[in-house]
Design brief:
The complex is a heterodimer of chains A (381) and B (519). Chain A has 381 residues and is mainly alpha-helical. Chain A has helices spanning 2-18, 26-36, 55-77, 79-103, 110-120, 128-142, 156-167, 169-173, 182-185, 192-195, 200-203, 208-216, 228-233, 245-257, 263-283, 297-302, 306-313, 324-343, 351-380. Chain B is globular, with a radius of gyration of 25 Å. The model of chain B is unreliable at 13-20 (pLDDT under 50). Chain B folds into two domains: 44-303, no CATH class; 413-519, no CATH class. The chains are: A mainly alpha (381), B alpha/beta (519). Chains A and B meet through helix 2, helix 3 and helix 19 of A and helix 12 of B.
Chain lengths: 381, 519
């Protein structure tokens, strides 16, 4: 089996490299080859032995960390989730390949994560062409125009989501996708969307964050808010990756354990968000509906994209700072501004804006941290 | 509770030693290698005296010395082959008895040098150095100094052993503290068990002799705390001599002079600085044994114990090797069947690759490492659990299994752009930012690289080792240092030239003035 694959790949190499026109797509065949078979390169200079960790594994581990959330989203939303993911991979992958071929550079594995994260930020009702548009925009504007993975300032998945958010606001801003009274209907996974007959009833209702915003304004009664246990275990409405905080936390802990994600960013993000919202919940303003404008910590942390953002988006190494001190500030900025946006600004959700905002500040933080570090050194020396 | 949590904490944080004793001293950064396949076994073999040895005339610290023997001369093990008392150098000693066949130029990993080719007669005896004492305790400092010099020992150590004979980087009385390192941190190097467990007495006497000669303020032994039995024995042996035994971590690069000085003495070696300039002489434990042999037995430096480690050996072990033995005489026959070996001298992280196996080992060699060139392509390598892979991240099962780790030269991935994972910064023992330094150098900003302490780099190779993007960070940094030094050199020359010109014109002016005055 392996031998047949090897022969096929060798044949493909031969054909492509022998053909003047096809030579452009050499990166594609190289990437395919490298996907199946590990590298044959040996070290050229010291150190002669190397750590076996590589970017492929690095990115694969993030995907593995996302798996609980992906499986649950398949369970909750059925095939529509799978469709969204596949569309995202196909279109995003094509863009990545085109850019790699034009630049004559190897195809970078960073896309694997983007292609998985992006659909998880979308409501299940997003039409496939919107998904395709979003991922193409995300990969192009968020990453490739800067020079590819490693040189981007922003999280490409979030740039994609932002693009959709701005171009098709109605489709994304109100992700009322989780069937409103599914629990009572005995809803289980692959049923509603499969049949294609979605009753109007199942469409109504809002995400916990939108609902809460309405309650605060006094437009809705408090009983529309989901129970806290449901927030945690995932019986809430939201984007594909959002419903179950528990799955995200498990996956997130996994990538922290394998040291792919920075625990500093996650901890600082969660702590800041939690503590800040707790203080403001106790002592902050009360809305017209009799509810504090700021939600309590549990509601803040386990609703919307907070966990997805904190564990998987904020920890994207490329757009986050490297310096340890800067990482604390970076996480804190995300937590703080998310709470602010959610409660005070017009938008129900603020994770995307916060992370992109922090992305903007990340190089600055890095620079300040470096400055402090070396000025201090200079004084000591 | 803590004992339950500890392995967990260890896995997450990568903190090195589980049973870290509270007295273990350590430093920030660094990396603890798991045992690899091919770590040396606890035995010492004798490499038979080769038919031909090639003895380079530049070995260790110091300059090349001119040969003092002629082709055709009969030499013994211990005969001085080359010597120059005027330059910073140490005599080169013949390591076998036989006939000088040739004196020719050879290419070593650190450049060209003249070398004496000696055909040996196979006898293992050596010519003992003359001594005018019977007990080493009666030997005076002058006598010790001369014997260390003539025995060829003073070229050992990073900056040589300072003596009156111009052998080290500083004067002998500048040595205020001595640190002896017995910290095997790298893969495949000599273990303390092999080197010291049967030579505690010799080691102690060696320390005593060094103390008599240098009269340092304090002497320190930095030892890994892995083998507690040995540490206890060593303590018992050395307390009388007032040698302070420090238990230090097993993290690489603990044995580097800059690091060990800071760990043991809390003296910070500045960037571009050397430990020796701070009055700290850092030497390897084996040097102390050589000192003992030279002074007590009159044995010049003709052979060393060398670690023959690495996955390509069929039976990795330590070996007694005559200096000047060719690499092929050492490794041939002990490499596993059917693999392509890569020979690396001294260190798998920083050492040079030996392509021509007919080059000799010199007196500074401590390991001849043979790694397997691994070009096979494992299927779907990035999702393999990897129970026998060592890694800085916890992404391989190898972090928790006790298996010996694979040790081959495979790159393990493809070259990619930096993804800012921060691993290099984490392991850097000098608290640098290797990723940033590399970017500065590749973008041609040497000034910026200098601001962020490029000269703080001690070239331990850890950043390149851990990089998941497989960027040759250490190579970039070394390249950057060279560029900066070359620029400085050029600047200095230009300043000198300008100065010269100014002086010249001044002279002319004054001459003119004189002329006008005379007129």
């Amino acid at each position: 089996m392996l031998r047949i694959l090897r022969i096929l790949l060798d044949k493909a190499h031969e054909v492509i490299e022998g053909n003047e026109r096809l030579r452009r797509i050499v990166p594609l065949i190289n990437a395919t080859d490298a996907f199946f078979f590990g590298p044959s390169e040996v070290t050229e200079s010291a150190p002669h032995i190397r750590d076996r960790m590589d970017v492929k594994r690095y990115m694969t581990l993030v995907i593995i960390g996302l798996m609980p959330a992906v499986v649950l989203s398949l369970h909750f939303f059925g095939w529509v989730a799978l469709r969204t993911i596949i569309v995202s991979y196909i279109f995003g992958g094509t863009v990545e390949v085109i850019f790699a071929c034009v630049r004559r550079e190897p195809i970078n594995e960073g896309f694997l994560v983007t292609g998985m994260l992006f659909p998880l930020t979308l409501p299940a009702t997003t039409p496939w062409w919107v998904v395709a548009f979003g991922i193409v925009a995300g990969v192009t504007l968020g990453k490739e125009i800067f020079g590819g993975t490693g040189k981007n300032f922003f999280n490409p998945a979030l740039i994609g989501r932002l693009t959709i958010f701005l171009t098709f606001p109605l489709l994304v801003a109100q992700p009322d996708v989780w069937p409103h009274n599914a629990a009572e209907q005995g809803y289980s996974g692959f049923s509603t969307y499969e049949t294609g007959r979605i009753s109007v009833d199942t469409y109504t209702g809002a995400t916990p964050l939108t609902a809460r915003k309405n309650v605060v304004r006094g437009e809705l009664d408090e009983d529309v808010l989901p129970a806290k246990r449901d927030l945690f275990l995932g019986r809430i409405r939201g984007s594909l990756g959002e419903p179950c905080s528990l799955a995200l936390i498990l996956g997130g802990l996994f990538i922290i354990l394998v040291r792919v994600a920075s625990w500093r960013i996650v901890l600082s993000c969660i702590l800041t968000g939690g503590v800040f919202t707790l203080i403001m919940n106790r002592f902050g303003p009360i809305g017209e509906g009799g509810l504090p404008v700021f939600a309590d910590p549990v509601y803040t942390l386990f609703s919307g994209g907070y966990m997805l953002g904190a564990f998987f988006m904020a920890t994207d190494p490329v757009s986050a700072p490297i310096n340890k001190g800067a990482k604390w500030f970076y996480g804190a900025l995300i937590g703080f501004s998310t709470v602010i946006i959610r409660s005070i600004a017009g938008f129900p959700e603020g994770m995307m804006f916060s992370i992109l905002l922090a992305n903007i500040f990340s190089p600055l933080m890095e620079q300040i941290a470096t400055g402090i570090r070396y000025r201090r050194e200079a004084v000591r020396a | 509770m803590e004992s339950i949590l500890r392995p967990f904490i260890h896995k997450v944080t990568g903190v090195c030693s589980l049973k870290a004793s509270p007295i273990e001293k350590t430093f920030k950064g660094g990396y603890c290698f798991k045992p690899f396949k091919g770590e040396i076994e606890n035995r010492v073999v004798n490499i038979p005296i080769p038919k031909t040895v090639i003895i380079p005339l530049r070995q260790g610290y110091g300059e090349e010395v001119p040969a003092v023997v002629k082709v055709g001369a009969n030499v013994k093990a211990g005969t001085v082959l080359g010597r120059d008392d005027s330059s910073i150098s140490t005599p080169v000693i013949c390591s076998v008895s036989g006939v000088v066949k040739d004196i020719r130029t050879i290419l070593l990993s650190n450049g060209e040098t003249k070398a004496v080719v000696v055909e040996s007669d196979g006898r293992s005896s050596f010519e003992a150095m003359p001594r005018d004492y019977t007990d080493y305790r009666n030997a005076g400092a002058d006598q010790i100094e001369l014997m260390l010099y003539e025995g060829g020992l003073t070229a050992l150590g990073e900056w040589g052993l300072p003596t009156r004979y111009n052998t080290g980087a500083v004067a002998p009385n500048a040595v205020k503290r001595i640190i002896i390192t017995a910290v095997p941190t790298e893969p495949f190097v000599m273990t303390n068990q092999v080197l010291l467990s049967n030579s505690l007495r010799r080691f102690a006497i060696g320390c005593e002799i060094l103390r008599t000669f240098y009269r340092p303020e304090s002497m320190h032994l930095a030892m890994s705390g892995k083998d507690q039995m040995l540490v206890q024995k060593m303590r018992a042996e050395l307390t009388e001599l007032k040698v302070i035994v420090h238990e230090v971590s097993r993290k690489h690069p603990q044995a580097f002079s800059e690091v060990v000085t800071e760990t043991c003495l809390d003296i910070k070696v500045p960037d571009r600085g050397r430990a020796i300039d701070m009055g700290v002489l850092v030497i390897d434990a084996q040097v102390v044994l050589h000192v003992h042999d030279a002074i007590v037995e009159g044995k010049p430096l003709i052979e060393r114990i060398v670690a023959l480690g690495g996955g390509a050996y069929s039976g990795p072990c330590a070996a007694t090797v005559r200096i000047g033995t060719m690499i092929k005489d050492i490794v041939d026959g002990s490499i596993r069947e059917g693999i392509e070996p890569r020979i690396v001298l001294n260190s798998s992280l920083t050492g040079p690759k030996i392509i021509d196996h007919s080059v000799p080992v010199d007196r500074t060699v401590y390991a001849v490492i043979a790694l397997e060139e691994f070009r096979e392509r494992p299927f779907m390598h990035f999702v393999r659990p990897g129970a026998d892979y060592d890694s800085n991240s916890n992404s391989f099962l190898g972090r928790i299994t006790g298996l010996f780790k694979r040790s081959d030269t495979n790159l393990g991935g493809e070259l990619r752009a930096c993804i800012s994972c921060g691993y290099c910064e984490e392991v850097c023992p000098r608290d640098l930012m290797p990723h940033y330094l590399s970017k500065c150098i590749n973008a041609d900003f040497p000034e910026e690289a200098e601001t962020v302490r490029i000269f703080g780099c001690i070239e331990c190779g850890l950043c390149s080792y851990v990089c998941p993007s497989k960027i040759p960070l250490m190579d970039d940094i070394i390249k950057g240092k060279r560029i900066i030094i070359a620029e400085e050199e050029e600047f200095r020359k230009r300043v000198e030239a300008a100065e010269e010109e100014r002086k010249l014109s001044e002279k002319e002016e004054s001459a003119e003035e004189n002329e006008t005055e005379n007129a």
